Please model this.
Amino acid sequence: MKRTDRVGAIIRILSQHPNKVYSLSYFCDLFGAAKSSVSEDVAAARDLLERMELGRIETIAGAKGGIRFISKISRKDADMLLKELKERLSEGNRILGGGFFYTSDLMFDSNLVQGAAQIFADYFLDKGADCVATIETKGIPVALMTSHMLNLPLVVVRRESKVSEGSTVSINYISGSSDRIQKMSLSKRAVTPGSKAIIIDDFMRAGGSVRGVQDILAEFDVETVGIGVLIASKKPEKKKVENVFPLIYMGEVDEETKTFDLAINSDVFR
Amino acid sequence: MKRTDRVGAIIRILSQHPNKVYSLSYFCDLFGAAKSSVSEDVAAARDLLERMELGRIETIAGAKGGIRFISKISRKDADMLLKELKERLSEGNRILGGGFFYTSDLMFDSNLVQGAAQIFADYFLDKGADCVATIETKGIPVALMTSHMLNLPLVVVRRESKVSEGSTVSINYISGSSDRIQKMSLSKRAVTPGSKAIIIDDFMRAGGSVRGVQDILAEFDVETVGIGVLIASKKPEKKKVENVFPLIYMGEVDEETKTFDLAINSDVFR
Model:
């Protein structure tokens, strides 16, 4: 095998499983190559990925060490992605009345949520989280992709307790948008007590659901170390949770003109 | 930029968005390189991916032509993945009684469902599907990953009709496992009449839910051209849908010994 081949293969394998640690010997065995030569391949792969802003290769020292790929979205691609999201959101026929709007096509678009997930993964990389949590249903795709980028398990809080979840813990919470009491439940097997979670969801108005997820995680002694949402409405200004990282802010819907303001969160480009 | 750099970048970019067509000029602009040189890079990338069984690069002719990456899982990796799935499924403490068992940790494991999705995408690649459909909740991750590999939109059928789905069509269906009448609903905006769908789900017993999804799609004049499930129970032998492609077959649960037979579908390796 030539260097070009080995570098290409390293990039394909590492980037398929972001944040997963591969030992150098894994590649030595795969290529039938010496460690010194694989080290040079990795250096070449790292160099080109950084230059092209296509991600980062990190070296982890120690017995269990090796290399891992940190997925990164370039500023240019993040900018393009958020502009696309903003544009598609502002299509007028999304407005359903009662302050609701249709977003399922966006939340179930794998390329769009993959890009959003890369932004979240980048932002929450160093929070020391042990899992990514969300509540069914529309937040699952972006939360899954974020969990994939971070190589963490995904925890899905259910609206109802299902037989197939085994024993569960349930809580009641106030949904901000409907001001009604709703229920959510989480399987006792789903999380490790004492661990840390990032909460990812598709949309936040007052923050009732996300607060609910935070509370149900707290029942398991799981600490929330970050909250990311694709879209946050500007109002109410006072949310039920703090330190939320939204990608897009949404102003109030004018049901007559069928328009609303949208603004990209500039913190994405810090 | 050197050849190694360009080949590595091509592999990273193409494989991030499987099945998406990129024009050669995209890479010419990105690298500031001539078409002849990019063509040689692509040939080198194609060659190495095939040799390493890491995927395939296809050329599409014509004005809208270009190249695209077809994600492929090697026989060895598929074998490892299914053995892992089988092993993790057979952990005895999954059995919940009443024939139910806990699988959420597997269905929400992004690396596992990514591998399963690669098998599905490979199997259903040439079916001419326009979308991937599933029913909430546990099938969403594997269906999303399959939709990503095929670069198709994901359509999620809901258990209840939600305000945020706009106008919906609902049907009743008989759930095989509980023999009860249940409801499912699909937004009118979610599918294009006259198009084709692949249905992907996590688990099938009698096939009631999948049959329901097929029926609700048919209400929109959407034809089902393939059905894939991660796990299918061996009984009942007679399912409510035909031509299902499962990855794992599951025998009956012996609740006393807390064991059940599992068998990998050998068709995966045809």
About this structure: The longest strand of chain B covers residues 223-233. The helical segments of chain B are 3-16, 24-31, 35-51, 75-89, 104-107, 110-124, 140-150, 208-219. Chain B has a mean pLDDT of 94.
